[in-house]
Design goal:
It is built from seven helices and four strands; from the N terminus they run H-H-E-E-E-H-H-H-E-H-H. By secondary structure, the chain is an alpha+beta fold. The longest helix is centred in the middle third of the chain and has 24 residues. The radius of gyration is 17 Å and the shape is globular. About 15% of the residues are buried.
Length: about 140
């Protein structure tokens, strides 16, 4: 019989850094609407989940747990290995801010979506991306 601790450890090891269901869902919706992008482009700082390089649009799909959504209230939900998880998630939050700042200072438009946001209203998320694509294209033509 597997203990809760062993099961949790197994689950955490199975989490991959790219290609989550929510990321694939957004990517597929954009692809089906004719938008072509790069996935996890290592040449772009922060390795965005989706990149429109020519338009300088970087899209990140963030899970609520790993990226600390509503961190000041949700951090109390962590019940084991508290010090480790608080340190790790705080660092993820800081890294996200650093990546946003760097990309924006270098002329990039950064879009970040929470997983639940994509699951709840995919079309709204796609619409936000398309608005930025259209805006970037207009700005490139002027």
């Amino acid at each position: 019989m597997i203990s809760n601790r062993e099961q949790r450890s197994k689950n955490m090891r199975a989490v991959k850094s790219s290609g989550s269901k929510i990321e694939r869902r957004l990517a597929l919706a954009l692809w089906e609407r004719g938008h072509r992008y790069r996935k996890n482009d290592k040449s772009v700082y922060g390795k965005p989940d989706l990149t429109f390089k020519g338009l300088k649009i970087a899209i990140f799909v963030d899970s609520e747990f790993w990226h600390g959504k509503d961190w000041e209230s949700t951090k109390y939900n962590i019940k084991s290995n508290i010090e480790f998880w608080h340190k790790k998630i705080k660092r993820n939050i800081e890294r996200d801010k650093e990546v946003n700042r760097y990309l924006e200072q270098n002329g990039w438009c950064v879009l970040r979506f929470w997983g639940k946001e994509i699951n709840k209203d995919l079309l709204h998320c796609v619409s936000k991306v398309e608005d930025k694509i259209n805006e970037a294209r207009r700005n490139n033509n002027t």
